[in-house]
Amino acid sequence: MRMMKRPNILLTGTPGVGKTTLGKELAQRTGLSYVNVGELAQEGQLFDGFDEEYQCPILDEDRVVDELDDKMKEGGVIVDYHGCDFFPERWFHIVFVLRTDNSHLYSRLESRGYTGKKLQDNVQCEIFQTIYEEAMEAYKEEIVHQLPSNEPEDLERNLEQIVQWTEQWMKDNN
Length: 174
What we know:
Layout: E1 9-12, H1 19-30, E2 33-36, H2 37-44, E3 47-51, E4 56-59, H3 61-74, E5 77-80, E6 94-99, H4 102-111, H5 116-127, H6 130-138, E7 144-148, H7 152-173
Parallel strand pairs: 1-5, 1-6, 2-5, 6-7
Antiparallel strand pairs: 3-4
Helix pairs in contact: 1-7, 4-5
């Protein structure tokens, strides 16, 4: 496999932590391409049924991986999704898990129309660091980083940090 010229980055975390906002802005600042897995699945109908309890389609993880594999081999991709343990470990050079305080998260999810069990489960997921632990099990610990995502200042700080990391990676690997 030839050396990639640009890194692959995973942005993950509970729904509502700011992955999409960060991912789109990061793509603009770095020139990397941005993939929102939820949108990709919607466009390609990469689903495996419907979850009545959560009122949402069930992602067909194998088809998503097949769909993205060639693009990931080329490098230069920012992937945004709230799950992470089904992506191949070889895909990512770095993984950022966004974390949000529950007071912020609750209101963000409520404003998206989340209610009942779906709202409670997502807030609990954040409390128990579920996505962070999933990332720590799925990838090498040294590439997994937590980033606070509460205030607009956090977004700017996170962008600067990831842009710096990306520039350094490209210097070191080209």
